[in-house]
Write a structure and sequence with these properties.
Distance between the termini: 31 Å
Radius of gyration: 15 Å
Shape: globular
Structural class: alpha+beta
Strand order of the largest sheet: 1-7-6-5-4-3-2
């Protein structure tokens, strides 16, 4: 973790890791939490394996869906870690994503109350980190992490 380049978020989710993992890897569950409500998410591709695609669209009205994320998974360790980046698209082509190029690492560990869920979002330079922070990283990623927790906690009581 480099505080000049990275943003982080951590939360204890009161559900087993398997429930959190399922919310990350099952497209029907993923689209329920990935985008801050009331916007809606549609999963075009969710191939959770190294080199696999992560492609989503979003809608503000539930009718028209526009591109949201076209990314590639870099590392997938079952039930423990997911790393993806939007600087390589789902076709493995170099991308110049807006508004912020990033690589996100999500880790999940057992916790006495459920799952210790941590996110590190890495940026290429301090300006990108500041831009992401000013665009609302804490609110956006915090909101969807709350939605993820709500979904996992509803399906996986301890």
């Amino acid at each position: 973790m480099n505080p000049d380049l990275d943003l982080t978020l951590a939360r204890v989710i009161r559900a087993p890791r398997a429930a959190v993992w399922s919310a990350w890897t099952d497209p029907s569950r993923f689209e329920k939490w990935w985008i801050p409500a009331p916007a809606l998410c549609r999963v075009d591709r969710l191939d959770v394996r190294p080199g696999g695609a992560l492609v989503t669209r979003l809608s503000d009205d539930g009718v028209e869906f526009v591109p949201h994320l076209d990314a590639c998974f870099l590392v997938v360790d079952d039930l423990e870690r997911i790393v993806f980046t939007n600087v390589i698209d789902s076709a493995w082509r170099p991308a110049n994503p807006t508004p912020v190029p990033m690589t996100a690492e999500i880790t999940m560990r057992d916790h006495p109350d459920g799952t210790d869920y941590r996110i590190i979002v890495r940026h290429g330079d301090p300006a990108a980190r500041v831009r992401h922070e000013n665009l609302g990283f804490a609110d956006g990623w915090g909101s969807v992490t709350g939605q993820l927790a709500g979904l996992a906690e509803s399906q996986g009581a301890l």
